[in-house]
Write the structure tokens for this entry.
Amino acid sequence: MIRVGILGYGNLGKGIECAVKNNPDMELKAVFTRRNPEDVKILTEGVNVYHVDDAVSKKDEIDVLILCGGSATDLPKQTQEYAKYFTVVDSFDTHARIPEHFANVDKSAKENGNVAIISCGWDPGMFSLNRLYANAILPGGNDYTFWGKGVSQGHSDAIRRVEGVKNGKQYTIPVQAALDAVRNGENPELTTRQKHLRECFVVAEEGADKAKIEAEIKNMPNYFADYDTTVHFITEEELQRDHAGIPHGGFVFRTGKTGWNQENSHVIEYSLKLDSNPEFTASVIAAYARAAVKMQKEGMSGCKTVFDIAPAYLTHLSGEEIREHLL
Amino acid sequence: MIRVGILGYGNLGKGIECAVKNNPDMELKAVFTRRNPEDVKILTEGVNVYHVDDAVSKKDEIDVLILCGGSATDLPKQTQEYAKYFTVVDSFDTHARIPEHFANVDKSAKENGNVAIISCGWDPGMFSLNRLYANAILPGGNDYTFWGKGVSQGHSDAIRRVEGVKNGKQYTIPVQAALDAVRNGENPELTTRQKHLRECFVVAEEGADKAKIEAEIKNMPNYFADYDTTVHFITEEELQRDHAGIPHGGFVFRTGKTGWNQENSHVIEYSLKLDSNPEFTASVIAAYARAAVKMQKEGMSGCKTVFDIAPAYLTHLSGEEIREHLL
């Protein structure tokens, strides 16, 4: 059994807990939190919640520690720190800072003989993998990534910061005409507006000026101004009833040509339709946590991404089994 | 530059030749044939065609030899034989015999310190990879593979063996309703008939009994009897004009649930739409040929499949570049 520790018990941490339950070769060993451990109620019976300060003292009881903090301030510190003591996996997703994060974690993991997998999930993660495979197969082609339909936390937060807004949720939606054009091999050049729509469900405070709220959202630079945005005003009750989930998903395409005179076209498409963004992310992380433990046992060390890990490491099945049943 | 040799110059061999042209870090070094080399005209200027008996004598001029023979009788002998002298890649696709082929090639490749990649292409190959990744992420889910729309050589051959048939081509077509049900997460149980249609374009010999031909095709056991099959009679001219291509493609799905009570559903979909089956297969093989050469240089040896190869080996880009641009 792979003994899993979770550091940080928010949506992602809970998702890891569920993924551990769904993987027969894994068991949850401990949850670490910055809150008062007594205030954190987890789902798994018989597993203790500890303060994060006690994590290192439990290192011999844990095969892999999954870091479920945020990319903005938590993971840049946590992953390199805990890679000193544990095999670790994180879901660091600030694309621009990945090279720096990789270098820091690699140093710490190598010096301490540990495997650390960073930027694991679906984007970065499964989408990245599909970009890499498809780029290697069709050099000289075009890449397209679409996100949604799904909830963007960042855009939902932005709505909630508008004056007069009590609550709100934002869905990112790929434009169907753009998807169709890419799928037909038309290799369109797409503007930001042509790729995604933004749909907002807003609960206004009593007496607030809805027209003003709508205008402020639609004209918000960076978040909404470059998109076709629709705003629906609903009640708090409707928001809780119809928009409580955290669905997401998206599409990765690569289109390219082959043949002596580039006469044949090809379309590679990978897509995800997810009821729960954090639970699916957690499921990807669980598979890579298994990989991390296997690689650590083989004596590897250092920082790895999904690009560096042979697919066979992800499964509990043997080489014989996967060649017989999945190849 | 990676120096590529091609053994066998049919559709796949030609596809490899084109893929080499499209990959800036590869050059074609030689083509080996069982035919009289003087009768084999290739597209690349300045590259020699040799008889297959001369292949081993050229081993120091070639970094990777791509075996483009058939899975029925060629590859079971060729891959283990040439793995003694070369880094090799094949596209062995007889699923049931993969374990045996793997064992034979592994022994020969290990004894001679070479890397040999088998069963490379899109199915087995990219489809297998997607089955493995998705199985690792969603344990306890359901797999679905659909093929087409595309030309099945085996079924086209079967048509051509029917009495009174001069020529013919068969398309395998996934049933749209089945695709939709899977995509909607309905987890349908599908019969053979519910998954694929078969569409045949047949050129009858003069005076042949078309009704008899149609009945014989539709009732042919294994090939057509279990499917809804349509038969169109066309002229040889129409067949050459409208059905000369070798398109193919397909869909790999995995659906599964997450959450403490399995309350959230997820759909992972990978699909290919290919104008040329052999050229796309060749493009996958070219990427894995690069991987084979890199792995050989690192001192690895033995038989590998797509499951055993970290994605980063497939690209000519550095780890820094792929982390920065594709992760």
User: Anything to note?
Assistant: Chain B touches chain A through 73 residues (CB under 8 Å). The CA atoms of residues 164 and 184 of chain B lie 44 Å apart. DSSP finds eleven helices and 14 strands in chain B.
